[in-house]
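Re: [help] complex structure
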Amino acid sequence: MSDATANAPIALRPRPDPNHLGHTGNREGSRAPGRGTGGPAPKRIVVGYGFWVFILSDIIMFAALFAAYAVLRGGTADGPSGRDIFDLDTVAIETGCLLLSSFVCGLATLALSARRALLFQAAMAGTFLLGAGFLALEMREFAGLLARGDGPDRSAFLSSFFTLVGCHGLHVAAGLLWLLTMMAQVLTKGFRADILRRTMCFALFWHALDIIWVAVFTIVYLMGVL
Amino acid sequence: MSDTVSQDEGGDQRRHADTAPGDEFGQEDIGAGLRGYSIGLGLAALLTVASFVVLRTQLVWAPAIPLALIVFAIAQMGVHLVFFLHITTGPDNTNNVMALAFGVLIVVLVVGGSVWIMGNMNRNMMPMGPTAPMESGMPGH
Amino acid sequence: MLGKLSLSALPLDQPIPLIAGAAVVVVLLGVIGWIVFAGHLPYLWKEWITSVDHKRIGVMYVVLGLVMLIRGFSDVVLMRSQQAVAYKSPGFLPPEHYDQIFTAHGTIMIFFGAMPFIIGLMNFVVPLQLGVRDVAFPTLNSVSFWLTATGALLVNMSLVIGEFARTGWWPSPPLSEVTYSPGVGVDYYLWAIQIAGIGTLMSGINLTTTILKMRAPGMSYLRMPMFCWTALASNLLIVAAFPILTATLAMLTLDRYLGFHFFTDERGGNSMMFMNLFWAWGHPEVYILALPGYGVFSEVISTFSSKPLFAYRSMVAATMAILVLSFMVWLHHFFTMGPGGDVNGIFGVTSMIIAVPTGVKVFDWMFTMYGGRVRFTTPMLWSLGFVVTFVVGGATGVLLAVPPADFVLHNSLFLVAHFHNVMVSAVIFAGFAGYGYWFPKAFGFKLHEGWGKAAFWFSVTGFVAVFAPLYVVGLLGMTRRMQHYDVPEWRPWVLAASAGVIVMAIGVVCQIVQLVVSIRRREELRDVTGDPWDGRSLEWATASPPPAFNFAVLPEVHGEEAYWGVKQAARDQRRLREEPSYEAVEMPLNSATGVICAFFATLVGFAMIWHIWWMAGLGLLGAFATFVIFAWRDRVEYEIPAETVARFDRANRATRAEALASLRRRAA
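Output below.
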């Protein structure tokens, strides 16, 4: 800041807004690397941002599945509707599992940035157990439906339900596989920069799955039993 | 005076920085980070419980329940974004927020557009309504 | 053990596919045999197949695109000759074969001709224009390319093993459901597109991240060349639209494989939902292809008019407006399916609105030429041809955006003429303009002008001769995809279109001859300075072909048209900039991850098509193992020493100093 502006009367100075909402700050634009004119961003930012874009594309894929569910939920073909098959107690436990696992995954991130290996492994193991618990409950629900003959081939409603919820479950399963891989990587390779980046991406993925689950339990389960 | 200057410096620091989503900006010790995650967990749990409670009790006027559920869901997504994914309004987050806004726009267009279009098609093309089995709704059967 | 696969999958009883397939296999084996026995395999493996260099991958994309364009064009020749002879007669192609040909034509042209061509150009050019050394994720880039190639391989396998879909290039249910298409044709389509689509999505993420996070110092968003802006919009559309396609095709796959009822029209299923979701991807896809085309024309017209692009900021605004609007018009692909007046009206209006930013662009190009010193090189000719034909195609598009008019013209040859008119001019013309424009940058010598101009004139004349009659015959009521017909009024127009294909074919031959002649005369066509066209953006600041590290030092950008500014300063000060201090450069190591992944993806795709479940599992396991091995490697980069960088840059500076001196001699 130049002396001239610093000595100007206080009343004439614009109120400083730390976040510069609504305008880009100084005239020549930001000198930040990446988003501004400071040259390429550091690798960590590039990787995190690229993965963020991937997560958004994944969310759009879920949006297409949600659209299919919203359009086809009335197509029960005289079969069961959501009210007949959804068990909200299970859903509540599933939701709790996933929310807690998201929190524990956050702990793992913190442990990683503090370079505390034992805490990291413990938190990741906790995340795994909660995620696996979620998955087990979901598989139990699916198995029950299949056993009653209310499988995805019963009606368009059940097709879209199984696909939407199953796709989320598939993501959780893939996440668990990734989680184990990251635990093994940290164990064998230590806190290498590329492993830190990958773990950051994993945490993003896991938190994003929880966001999608919020939409699933609200739109599919809660609004399905109304 | 000195207060404003230091605030400016804080803003300046973020103005010339860039963060990735999920990155904790200037929070390297566990304690401070843990506080953020705990607040997030608390708020998210509160909103989840609220959703379930609203559904199972008579607290909210029945026709407004879907709206209440959607409001709680959006609020909870916001909580997740802020406390777990560390998306903020800071200038170092501009790109992240812009990408998110674009994604949300597309989600709204695809879901809203599909429901609107298909609702109209069902009304116009199937006299029996969308819940009736299609076979009986087809002309000629 | 082998699922549905047996010897009866080979078309031993159908002569045309058998001969065509056998010829392709023989040629392919011949090429592979020649490569192996002539000892080129190690070179190809080290320098191309495992390369993670964006320039090499870009070139491979373009080669794949060109080969597939020829493959798609051979389908055209078959279809047009069938319609030429099939007046009151069954012609020489039976319906089930004809249906496969038009399906393959559309699928190949969109997914494996146009897409790789355009993505290849973006891959090659964008990092060079941004002044950086590579894309954000080099190995992922290689994976993307090889997955796209896998898709192309699967589609072409269907020529010999089994059959391809007979549903048209969008596999509309219930026709594409297992009840009406029990064969493997639709499965070939689904798995080929799904695998290639994953590759495209990853490439979209890669380039979006590159443009938003990796630019040379000083290059703010509003200093980026126009091509980078259009590439940004196109890749954002890929990121936003391809997941919808993935989900939609996955739903159809579940219908076919596990008896789901998404689109079956039974048990509550709704086939119109497929149309809705497919076109929610399909319309943005049009702009995924067209926007980079607009970018190519912006670069070419500005360079060869020796003027900055007219109204750069309005062009940026128009590009971003198209980005958003392209997601609000998809219903105009199915006005006639009965969504009613309200919905049709609104989507009709949005479809007309999207013509406005496109019109802004046309005016910007024309005003760029106005008052400039226009050089009529081959790329410039393609651009001019584009402006004329594209305006015609765009105007018929606005006509079709009026729902009542669309009710008359839907699925007629008028529609076919319209979308070929816009897509071929905006994508294929752009592809060839970009191919001629950046070829010297990629290989260090220019393409032969004479043969290039011949290719242009034959192609454009043929193109107009094919599609002008189709507009007329469409208005006369001829629908698309007719295997035979018996209306005498249509006959002359259909014959005229078929004659046009012959002219176009000459253009294709000229294109090939141009490449061969240029390679043979490369010494006289050599581009020594790295700036053969007096260019304005940063790709012309480095040598032709650029070194692996692109730039010895990342260039500092001080305004729009970064390289023009540098040249201007050199002319004013009568010398080049001070020699920079060179440092060693870290570049990513080659990796076979991409090609190995593609191998396993081919395995999975082929296994799923033929219901060989164990092989699919094996393929998935192999792909995961490949990623784990990639994640475990310890060395990811190699160092290019400062002396090598310096030697390269000094040689390039010497040619430019020489060019500057000769400029001054001429001025004096």
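Chain B touches chain A through 70 residues (CB under 8 Å).
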